[in-house]
Design brief:
The protein is mostly beta strands. The chain contains two helices and twelve strands; from the N terminus they run ββββββαββββββα. The chain has a single domain, classed as Beta Complex (Beta-clip-like). β1 and β2 form a beta hairpin. It starts with 5 loop residues before the first strand and ends in a 19-residue tail after the last helix.
């Protein structure tokens, strides 16, 4: 049974307000695990911060370059031109939000921190997704697009998690 948190004040117990859980991580039809809404969530709601170890791009390449070469599966988020967030070990549930070409969420960067917010109203049971818009060095070959294939099932799926070159 779930209990509310309590705080002690003058020997009286006051129940602290506990927000109901808004989402849960479970098996996804898109890929591996996903994040699903437990309640209806309005447009413009800040859901969660993408957390993990913060490092330079150079350190991320040193640690994971060979491991992720030819693999689209990573829990690294380029927060800024200087900072990468590695959610592998100490990440929040945000690391399980899958890519979508028709996303209902978006990643917002603020002062080197990344937050996931809803782009539109989400119904209970819907899977959360944002467009990863992955940027890779070099030319986007057909092989590279296949290595970063998208399985989101959106009506206008572009078939890859790769974004447009900047």
């Amino acid at each position: 049974m779930k209990k509310n948190k309590t705080t002690s004040r003058n020997k009286k117990h006051v129940k602290a307000k506990v927000s109901p859980r808004r989402f849960v991580v479970r098996k996804s039809g898109i890929h591996g695990r996903g994040v699903f809404a437990l309640v209806d969530i309005p447009r413009g709601t800040r859901l969660i911060e993408y957390l993990g170890e913060r490092m330079s791009h150079k350190e991320a390449d040193r640690r994971y370059g060979d491991l992720h070469d030819g693999s689209a599966h990573t829990m690294l988020f380029a927060a800024t031109d200087e900072v990468v967030i590695d959610a592998t070990q100490w990440g929040s549930s945000a690391r399980w939000i899958n890519h979508s070409c028709g996303p209902n969420c978006e990643a917002i960067e603020e002062e080197g921190r990344v937050f996931i917010e809803t782009k539109r109203a989400i119904r209970a049971g819907d899977e959360l997704g944002y467009d990863y818009e992955l940027i890779v060095e070099g030319r986007q070959t057909e092989k590279l697009k296949r290595e970063h294939a998208c399985c989101c099932g959106a009506k206008k799926c572009r078939g890859t998690m790769l974004g447009k070159k900047r």
